[in-house]
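New to this. Explain these tokens.
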Amino acid sequence: MASGLNPVLGFTIFYVRDVAKSVDFYAKSFGYNVRRLDESHRWGELESGQSTIAFTPKHQHETDDLTGAVQLPKSDLHRPPMELCLIYPDLDAAFKRAVENGAVPVSQPEDKEEWGQRVGYVRDIDGMVVRMGSYVRS
């Protein structure tokens, strides 16, 4: 039984250069439905099951003073200390759609027997690594 102290993942927030472009990119490249894009283009949300993928500008005056400025990867040789992993029933078709819509291929889908999964990697329009995988085989 869950207690009042067990968290639920509410949002995964990406700090991006252009919220509207990122929302459009993720919707087209990865197959998400847009839940919301505010008129100021300072906040956007995608429907993602029980949680939400959200986007906000990398320069957040509301939080920069509290937690520091956001640093995006400086080149393809750098990546943040986390990655988004998206799971698909047809990984190869999903990977192809992502690349056709502007995702930069990093590693073509391949079987990872030790993981029980087929996995490929792309970068989004801000250089963030997105891992695309099949459902894990039992």
